[in-house]
């Protein structure tokens, strides 16, 4: 089993540290081929250790060794759901949450560097450090104009997180050949059913699947 959650879906990784947030989103179970990596402590620990090692290499920042407890597991799943809501809210799709999203109460350290730039460095302990890292990466991605390209697949049975590289940022499926064609076929069958119910005789062109 791959402990890189995004690799299970064959999606392009988001740039730099944003890939950590994308990987958290992709720990969720997807249809029949990808179990929930936060479903039990052993799988979650393997995923987290691998994800933090990768983030540390990419960001050139040290990552702590986080050993997960049962309460940490709940925190991780809540973080995942929160970021799903943030992304869905940003795309105008239903987030499943009413009103504004809750504030991110996490610590960060602002470090002035030799070249005069101020760097955001995650702070805190345990999963609060992880939350700090994730929110920091979200903020950096928004400042860099990358955030709108991190999306959840429009197939509600999939919801894989993908980084949209299309020129006009119009992608809605993590994989057009699977989720896209499945949705097109479903819509085609629904149109044919409705036309049958109304007695319509117009020809219907079958989608390319």
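Sequence proposed for the structure above (209 residues):
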């Amino acid at each position: 089993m791959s402990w890189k959650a995004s690799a299970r879906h064959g999606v392009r990784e988001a740039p730099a540290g944003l890939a950590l947030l994308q990987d958290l989103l992709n720990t969720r179970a997807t249809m029949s081929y990808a179990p929930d990596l936060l479903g039990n402590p052993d799988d979650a620990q393997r995923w987290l250790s691998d994800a933090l090692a990768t983030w540390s290499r990419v960001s050139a920042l040290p990552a702590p060794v986080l050993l997960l407890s049962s309460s940490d597991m709940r925190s991780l799943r809540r973080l995942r759901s929160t970021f799903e809501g943030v992304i869905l809210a940003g795309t105008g799709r239903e987030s499943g949450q009413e009103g504004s999203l809750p504030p991110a109460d996490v610590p960060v350290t602002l470090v002035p560097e030799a070249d005069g730039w101020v760097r955001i460095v995650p702070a805190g302990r345990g999963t609060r450090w992880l939350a700090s890292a994730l929110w920091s990466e979200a903020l950096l991605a928004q400042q860099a104009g990358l955030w709108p390209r991190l999306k959840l697949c429009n197939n509600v049975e999939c919801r894989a997180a993908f980084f949209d590289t299309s020129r006009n940022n119009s992608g809605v499926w993590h994989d057009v050949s699977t989720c896209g064609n499945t949705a097109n076929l479903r819509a085609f069958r629904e149109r044919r059913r409705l036309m049958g119910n109304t007695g319509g005789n117009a020809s219907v062109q079958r989608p390319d699947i």
